[in-house]
Structure formats: structure tokens, C-alpha cells
Design brief:
Layout lengths: L10 H16 L7 H14 L2 H14 L4 H13 L3 H12 L6 H13 L3 H13 L5 H14 L3 H14 L4 H13 L3 H14 L4 H13 L3 H14 L4 H13 L3 H11 L6 H14 L3 H14 L4 H13 L3 H14 L4 H13 L3 H14 L5 H12 L3 H14 L4 H14 L2 H14 L7 H4 L7 H10 L1
Helix pairs in contact: 1-2, 2-3, 2-4, 3-4, 4-5, 4-6, 5-6, 6-7, 8-9, 9-10, 10-11, 11-12, 12-13, 12-14, 13-14, 14-15, 15-16, 16-17, 16-18, 17-18, 18-19, 19-20, 20-21, 21-22, 22-23, 23-24, 24-25, 25-27
Amino acid sequence: MIENTENYLDDDALTLVGRFEEMIKAETLYYFDVHEFESIIDHYIEKGNLLEAVKVSNIANRQHPGAISLQIKKAQILVDREQHLEALSILKNIQGIESSNKEILLLKGNIYNHIGKPELAKKQFDKALQVSYENREDLLFRIALAFEQLSQFGLAIEYLEEALELDEEDSEVLFELGYCYEKIGEDDQSIMAYEQFLELNPFSDNAWYNLGIIFNRMGNFPKAVEAYEFTLAVNDQHSKAYFNKANALANQGLFEEAIKCYTEYLEFDDDHASTYSYIGECFEKMDEYEQALINYETAIKTDENLADPWFGMGLILMYQDKIDECLVYLEKAKNLDDTNSDYWFALGSAYARANSPQKAVQAFREAIDLDPYDTTYPITLAEYYHQNENEETAIDVLLESLAQTPNCPQLLSNLAAYYAITGDIKSSEHYIRQAIDIDSENINDIFIQFPELKKNKIFTKLIKANQ
């Protein structure tokens, strides 16, 4: 049996709509009472036909100029059409007649919300709560949604928490609480709300999926995978769950399982280029370079404007010492996205190996400028200067970076090493002390990077004396 697609309206309402449209065609005027006009207006609002709703409203207000409910309907239509100031003018006029009308207060609250005045909106909503003696929980939920829709998540949480006090097992409230806490970065609170929701609705794939996103953001990848598995157990057509599960597996180094999930995701999503690129990256991390290259090439053929597979191809060719070829791919990746610091860093490394010092330094500098907080970049550039027997410039690079990240033990220990190499023992000791104060356990790792310093008795004594 085929269901009526307009089941939100009863037969009487549809009859009224038909009669109204007949009146318009006949270019005459029929009488409708206030409730009948409200039904007709609701029909057009729910259909999204706001122009027709305006037409009905204008006729309705001419027939019933004193009907407050019809003026409220007109204001509602104006709000839906984003004519907020006109709607507000109507509501202010009729509020003098019905100052405690809940619907007027709620509409005014929505308008203030939409025009960027959330505190005024809150005052109107709170007044509506004061004059409402029934269905308080439902009203709190409606107000919360009004704030949530405009990303006022902190305000939404206030009303949701109050609603939850009235019914701690209201699943709708719990779900929205989980969502709002997630949006403001209160991950523990969000998890708690979603878990309470799932106790009541264990077959909600969306709740399991949202939970997975939060665990993933927290770096708890095993719990993220578990949540995505529940998502798929409930709904095996939830495509993004395959993708996110694959990412969470890859983040744990479980690349074979990740590849399987990415492959399943290919059956759902049209963005095959990105997915093939991720598969290529997994093979790359497994040192299966031929398979990685195949998937990167497939990604490029699918979308030649996607930068990541060009970058991945470039890295593998660099690992294989095919520097000239590697530069072609890395330059392409950089040209497609010149704001990616990793691309510039890889280019710097490739140009260094190609004996192009000017281009190498320029690329390393670009990487540092784009992400001054990633200390790998300045440490590598300093090492490049050191390899070219230019320790003073290496020190300058690290001192510049230290201004951005003053408590990085790797920067401090590298500075100590370069000062020791240049014979500035006082400065070397100064930075050794700082590095040890922050991380005493790993200070000896500096000898892995600078094995020649094992033979420097002064430097080794400085480390032992300060440990």
C-alpha cells in the first residue's frame, strides 16, 4: 500500500487548501475562519512555499484584522524569509496586547538569535519559560535547538541540562547534549552524554559514529575503532564509518586492516582519488613501495589536482634515490598546495640531496615559516648547515626557532651540541642544563645525532655533571 505523501495534513486541511486555491483561480473571495487560515498557512510553510504563505497571510489578516494568532503566523513567515526586522515590528505591536503570549516571546527570541543578539534572545526565551506552566521540558528543548542551530552551543547546553534534570532519560536531550559538548571540545562530557543515550538507544548508528569521532580526536584509536564497528553493526551502509575506522586503524599502525576498510569504503564514496591516496600511504608505511606507487598513480589518474598522491609518489622516489624524478612529483604537489609545510620540507630534503643548496635552504625556510612550531624543520635545516660546516648559521636557525618553542628539549640539546662543536663551552653548558631540566631521560639521544661528540670529553663531562 502506498502511503499518502501529505500525511502531515488531515483531509480537512487539504480540502481547505483546495478551496483556497479554487478561490484564487476564480479571482473571488471566500470566507475562512481563523483556524482554517492557520491550517492553510501551515500547509504552505511545510511545503516551503513561503510566497504563497505570504499571500494567504495577507488575505487572512484583511478578513480577521484583530486575530493575534494570524499576526503571529505572518511574523513566523517573515522570519522564515529572513525578514527579521519586519517580523520584530509586528511582534512588538501585538505584544502590547498579549504581553505573556509564549509564542510571541519565542519568535522574538529566535529573531534576536538570528540577528546576532544571543543575550537578548535569552531574555525572551527566559520570559517564555516564566509564563509557560505546561510542557516545560519540551520548551527547554526547543530553546536549546534554537541556540544550537546558530552554533551557540554553550547557551544550548544550559537549557539542555535543565531539561535533563526534569527527565534524565530523555534520549533526545541526551543526544543533543552529546553533540553540543562535542562542539565546544568538552570531550569527556560529550562521551558521558552519548553513552547515556546509547543505554537507551543502543541501535543508533549516528550516536556510535559521533562517539567514534570524539575518541579519534582524543587519540584513543582502539575505542574509536570499537565505536565505528558498532556503527557498522547497526548500519552496514554507513559509508563514513568505514573511512573513519580505516583512519583510526592506520593511526595505530594497523595498515593491513586499514587498507581493507578503505577498500570497502571505495564501494560507497565517489571521492576515490583521496581513498586510493590513503591506501597508497598505508602501503608506503609498510615499505611495500610498488603497491604504494600503484595506488598513488591510480589516485592521480582519478584526480590529477589532488596534491597528496603526487607528494606520496615523490617521497617513495626519494627513498629509492631517484632524486630527479622525485623532484618532479614534489614540485607538482607543492604547486597544487603551496601552504603545506610537509611538502616544502620534503622539497628541501630532495634539493639537499640534489646538491642544490640555495633551493634546499629556501624550501626548508618556507616549511619553517608555514609551521614555526614543528621543530623538525629547523633542526633539519641546522643539520644541513652543519653538514656544510656552517655551525654559526645552524645556531642562528635554532635560536630563531627557540623563540617560538622555548621549552623544546631537542632544540636545546642541539644548540648545546653546536656550541660544543664551535668551542663555546659556556653556552653549551647553559643549554645542556635547560635541556636536562625539561627532559633528563633522553639527553643522551644527542649522541645518536652527533656521534662525534662521544669523543668530546668536555661535552660528555658537562652532560654527566648536570644529570
